[in-house]
């Protein structure tokens, strides 16, 4: 039986598994509820770890809601590579039934559907019916100039949901972007397409598995994607063309980490012992290493260093690793406020218009903050702070990880 549409104002809040006491212990400013009808940049920042789930998985609704209770704020129901060709119709039916089940459920995460073709967008919308109020948008694989406009036009033509517009998340992974001789032209065309639908484009995703496959590569779990230079060069090109902070760019998310169990190692683990020993968390470090999560943590750090925010994940145990490392340290927070000329009690946006330059010492007395070059970084940091919270001065990332991982 179909339920009435959800009320306007649905939101997502990170770390739902924490008690009030744990939130108070960990956070100077706890994560805030992020309204799905709010700022596109803020919703994009709140994606965090986006969990891909095959649409033909048994009990698809149960999988989505278990993920949400464990901390997932965004999921993609996959009708593309994760579904055998002879099960596409079954996958479509399961997506429609799941959206119907989730209709009116405030605790549901943001739900996107990865389609195989532009025509499947209409099929999903027709099959969802009232359940479209549970749908946040579509992930568009192998997005390119050849058929990207058809995808975006169909999404733009869809009626808005009660909680806001239906969004598009194009996935950059096609051979024309991979190959250097066609890369610049293709990215320029993609940028033009996305600009025409700017209000509908939530984030640009990077398909590292397909990019690697073009070269016949499958990266080793001892390596990050940035060690795979042919793919790293594509990521750099995507960021420099589509991730600009001059009003022409978009939020770009980190590529998938595809390993989740132990393997035989040739190299040392990537996590130092000392920070874990100081917190009596040596066993927890062993746990991270045994699940190949030390490599994933290293890659997340490199994602952010290269301008990426959030990450695609394919296993539930990865979600809270990504989200924990998305929290903002107290040091980052006070530096960002200083760069933007804001006080802690200012409403979001107050002081963001400062244009004067200048250099000022960090409150932490360990660096100089330059207002002009650090401005974009500060804006992104405060968006992240709203979604994932600001940790207390004495709380480090290890304390957050131990509190939320495998809860």
UniProtKB/TrEMBL annotation:
Taxonomy, superkingdom: Bacteria
Pfam families attached to this UniProt entry: C-C_Bond_Lyase (PF15617)
Tagged with keyword Transferase: no
Gene3D superfamilies for this protein: Phosphoenolpyruvate-binding domains
Named cofactor requirement(s): Mg(2+)
InterPro entries: C-C_Bond_Lyase-like, Pyrv/PenolPyrv_kinase-like_dom, Pyrv_kinase-like_dom_sf
UniProt entry keywords in alphabetical sequence: Lyase, Magnesium, Metal-binding
Signal sequence segment: none
GO molecular function, one term: lyase activity
Keyword Nucleus found: no
PANTHER family assigned to the protein according to its UniProt record, in alphabetical order: CITRATE LYASE SUBUNIT BETA (PTHR32308:SF10), LYASE BETA SUBUNIT, PUTATIVE (AFU_ORTHOLOGUE AFUA_4G13030)-RELATED (PTHR32308)
Name this protein carries in UniProt: Citrate lyase beta subunit
